[in-house]
């Protein structure tokens, strides 16, 4: 594990613990590894830290006061009311395991058992910091969307930022626009956004889907007819182009337009005039035309099924909508938006999402794109069974196997922790086809530590053979700020009795491939 560089800011950790000596020992152990420990002695005192920009993580001792559990719950409730409060990691002795499970429902992100394993503590803090950073990025993305919002078009990925930019540019002019992309990617949303940002915003927006009508009716729908033009035409009727006069017409599935009507549409686009069926009179129209398709029009031009001159006329500006799987970074933002929207629409409780639920969403391929995601979130909101969060069980069956379980485990702490680690490791390996290097990167751990986990947990399925790990082992052993080295830096000689007692709440990390430089004091329970 590489040591932090001088340019990196220390991770700012608030320790809630009544034992000042323990805080001093823990602060000294972690200081050299890039962690800045600040101690408060009661959970009530930590509530003020929730609004502090200088706090990355809160470490909460469940034994910090006589009524610690109630006070801890108040702290977690106060954190839940903040938009971007720092994550809270709880810790305590084994007797507190049941209470710790209950606190997960109140928003605690992790629980560590005393004596604390420093390596495990560092991993937990790093995970929580990454989670907090993601929450801040999500809040920043929401602020950007508010200030530079294209109405209805959610996304903060690079692809969506480029689309936002193009929409703002083309909205100011009346040129034709072709929006392409798979079904469910939001092509009509783009057309609506162009209209609303344009000078035509107060004029009609008329949408027409070629696939919604048989070929024999498309002519009448687009261009209208005069009285007596055909049997049953008892009165004149305006077509969609006339309805959209001075505004915008959106023609969806333009690739399915029959060839004879392609020629008529081309003439309308060139001359800005329409002729109703049964009439020789041309009527001028002032319209902005936006077309959309999920088909490959260039290939259709080569095959002779789409007019080349019409293609060039409608594609002055092209906007390619990315598939949802190509912008997976936007899924949390979209899911959060749909979650709030459907909860309000169906008068349901506002909920958040568990990490397992969100992880399954980001791993799905989404063949139906945003429309499919919308349906999944609505289903979850309608069918959810209590609780403050949507969990894996609230997903459709085809999505439930895409994430490690986020259920609160039962049984002993060690059995529950082992089962969780096993699920997490197997999920990472499955995601990367058994490639251990990529799985380790995804988990945020070194590959040699992953190898030890595989052996400890007896995970052998779908593991790809890899070369020797001598370089990584050497790097890990030479880590100047490793957990074991941090212990060696403590001056144990001359420690006060309180400091000696505090050390019994820490556990020396075993089996991490780090050398023990000297024997420890016999009366200290530092394994």
Description:
This protein is an alpha/beta fold. Helices cover 45% and strands 13% of the residues. The protein contains 22 helices and 18 strands. It has helices at residues 20-31, 43-46, 68-80, 97-105, 118-147, 158-171, 187-197, 215-223, 240-243, 259-271, 297-303, 308-314, 331-345, 355-363, 369-383, 397-400, 413-431, 436-443, 447-457, 470-477, 483-488, 497-503, and strands at 11-16, 35-40, 57-61, 88-92, 110-113, 116-117, 177-180, 205-209, 224-225, 237-238, 248-252, 273-275, 282-284, 288-293, 317-320, 352-353, 389-390, 506-507. The strands form six sheets. It has a five-stranded parallel beta sheet with strand order 2-1-3-4-5, sandwiched between helices. β3 (57-61), α3 (68-80) and β4 (88-92) form a beta-alpha-beta unit. α1 (20-31) crosses α22, α10 crosses α12 (308-314) and α17 packs across α18. Residues 1-7, 464-495 and 509-527 have low confidence and may be disordered.
